[in-house]
Input
Amino acid sequence: MMSEIDKQIAITTVGIERHSFSIPEFAVESDVVSEEVPVALVFNGISHAVMMASPLDLEDFAFGFALSENIVDSISQIYDIEVIQNASDGQPLGTEVHLQIAQACFVRLKEKRRTLSGPTGCGLCGIESLQALDLAPGTCQMKTEAISIKKTVLQQAFSSMTEKQVLNALTGSMHAAGWVNLKGEIELLREDVGRHNALDKLIGAMAKKTVFAERSGFVIMSSRASYELVQKCARAQIRVLATVSAPTSLAISIARDAGICLIGFVRRAGFVVYTHPERLIAE
Output
């Protein structure tokens, strides 16, 4: 359960002018909006990426980013982490998350290092050329048997997601990524203004709780399915990704190659399966 302190660092209450049929035109009211701050991810003292994100669950975010961007191969290669809040004259300047990683991983990072500026709607900002674009999907390593999900379980998970989105209920502007077990129960959920960040936070939280490595389940998201989300799922060995909205053509292509079952347009009336439909079973 999210504490009141956690809520306060991810949202702000402001007076805004807005038009409403229920109040006088341009009346000033208090509203709740999402915080969006720059978060610098620093590896072994070198700043690698600056992302715009919600200032919540930042350790999870850093762990997930390191894993989903192939900076480290496992969480055991992250030796230390520290979150530093920067301010000047009492005004916040953003947050730095410092990670100490294995030397072999750091050498690999320096070889392909690029400085990113990551607006929440864009996964390509900051690369210097088309040659720097990484579209390698990775491959989900299958366990002893393929995961099978009942169709009713999928819809059950989505029907319960709204009540789990505490911050979105307050602000209306937060994406969510949730891990669901094969009974349709959401066991873990993370929120952020950016859909990529929400998934990284979920991946990081799952990595910290090693019990999830042995559990079968799938990921649901309150967004469209971009290729970056599919790519991150493949690298995290997540074999089923289901989203509220549509996927892109590149997301479908990468999901097909990676062995991921990609599902979109999940509604009460049904959903669309784009790749690997054998992962779903009827009741």
User: Anything to note?
Assistant: The chain has a mean pLDDT of 84. Residues 151-164 form the longest helix (14 residues). The radius of gyration is 19 Å.
